[in-house]
Amino acid sequence: MRGFYLQEVHSAPDYRVPHVDAAYHDYWARALAFGYQAPPRDDPDPELRTTPYFRPPGYPFLLAAIYKVAGPDPIGPRVVQMVVGLLNVLLGWVLARQVCGRGAALVTASWLGTYWIFPYFEGELQEPAFSTFFLLGLLHVLWRWQRRQRVGWILAAGIVVGVLALIRPNALLLIPVLWGWLAWIQRSDARLRSRLVGQGLAMGLAATVVIAPVTIRNWVVGHQLVPISANGGINLYIGNNADADGTVRGETPYGVLDTCYDWPGIVKTMEMELGRPVDYQGASREFSRMALDFILAHPDQALRLAVRKTIYYWGPSEPGDNREVSIERKLSPSLRANPWDFGMTLALAICGVMLFVRERRRSGRRTDARSARERRGLANETWQAGMLWLAVALLWWVSYLPFAAGSRYRVPTIPILFLFGGWFAVRFGWMVLSRQARTSAAWGATLLGLIVVCHVNLIQPGSSYARWHYQRAMSYWELGDKEAALQEYQTAASCNPKNPAVQNDLGVALASLGRIDEAIPHFQRALERNRKSPAAHFNLGTAYESKQWYGEAASEYRAALQLDPGHVGARDGLERVRRLSAGVSRSVGTGRAASPS
Question: Where are the transmembrane segments (predicted)?
Answer without folding.
Answer: 79-96, 102-121, 128-145, 151-184, 196-216, 340-357, 378-399, 411-433, 440-459
